[in-house]
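Re: the request from the purification team.
They wanted to know what the chain is likely to look like in 3D before they choose a buffer screen. I agreed to run a prediction and write the result into the notebook, where they can find it.
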Amino acid sequence: RSSVDSSSWSVRARDSAGAKRSRLSKKVVAWESRRGVQSIRGANSLFFLGRMVSIAAFLAMTTARHKEVKVMSAGDLAELYAIDEGPVETAELSRVVGRHVDKARVYDAAKPVARHTVAAFEAFRKRAATHEGDIIVDGGCGRCRSTRRVSEAYPSDLVVGVDRSAYRLAHGDSPPLPANAHVLRAELADFWRLLAKDDALRRRVRHTLLLYPNPYPKRAHLKRRWHAHPALPMLL
């Protein structure tokens, strides 16, 4: 019996020790989890504090810069943005201009004028015959907002808006254009070519506007921009 009692006691002792170890391990796990949460909270607090310090430093720097800003006059701005082009080399300038003129001749001889531009030019010719004042050409007028403003500023002149896009012309400003405004769907380069060959109309042109000179921002489309287009010498 004594042997049985001793064996049962040893079993209870082992169970009690195992229960204690289990409770201790649970306490350790709970403590480590609380410690991890606290460390995460501490890291978040430090990160938030660092962000607040950075924002405060940025605001202080920006305020200091604004205090140093001075109101500049028009002369100061002109001097600030002036480009020092240096001396003009006449020989190089003549070579570049001559190359453009040669390209214009080849372009005019090789490229046919679009049919819809010919029809639009004939309509423009008839409209100009009924107007006694000068002519202002608004090249690449788009939705005709600039055409409206120019025609309102020059009521005695015939303002002709030219654009290649029928969609832009059709979706222009909703109020009707002034009576001295005329809109054409035509290729602007072809329009210049036809205008250059018509001395009577060409002499009546007071201004040619290029308010949107760069519709092609990609470098590969440089020749499509007006300052590098072969038809530019015809305009000049």
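For the purification team: The chain is about 60% helix and 10% strand.
Please add any questions underneath this entry.
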